Amino acid sequence: MDCIFCRIAAGSLPATRILETDDVVAFRDLNPRAPTHVLVIPRLHRASLDALGADEAHLAGALLLATAEVARLEGVADSGYRVVANTGEEGGQTVDHLHFHVLGGRPLGWPPG
Ligand code: AMP
Question: How far apart are CA 99 and CA 83, in angstroms?
Fold first, then answer.
């Protein structure tokens, strides 16, 4: 298994886990860009948002619901937060396993650079 996020999902690579369901794992980003910076991933390997199948609406929904739950658990739901899925080369994706960043705990500028 050479995908680092598959290894985190399987428990063979350590991570600070925030939430786990049958479909989804959320853990703290190793290089946080905000006081709250959590990654939400599917347990199943999907390379990016672009690789989610048309028949995977349940998984897409589970991921989005988990991001909102992470924000509540992290205490940023009321102050506000951002959900980002960097996708592909120009999208700035560096790990090829679909993940949503949940960022919060400080004012976030827009648009990103
Ligand atoms: P992206 O650049 O959108 O693909 O995001 C990948 C994110 O994964 C980056 O923010 C990294 O800091 C984070 N990351 C890489 N390796 C690990 C790891 N072992 N544990 C937690 N976060 C990681």
Answer: 10
Query: Is residue 5 within 6 Å of ligand 1 at its C-beta?
Result: no
List the CATH number of the domain containing 78.
Answer: 3.30.428.10
Q: Is residue 112 part of a domain?
A: no
Non-local (6+) Cβ contacts of 74 within 8 A are 18, 36, 38, 81, 102, 104, 105
Predicted confidence at residue 1, as pLDDT, reads 67
- Distance separating alpha carbons of residues 42 and 93, to the nearest angstrom: 16
Active site residue 97: no
Q: How confident is the model at residue 41 (pLDDT cuts 50, 70, 90)?
A: very high
Comparing CA positions, the residue from 24, 21, 69 lying closest to residue 44 is 24
Euclidean distance between CA atoms 55 and 68, whole angstroms: 22
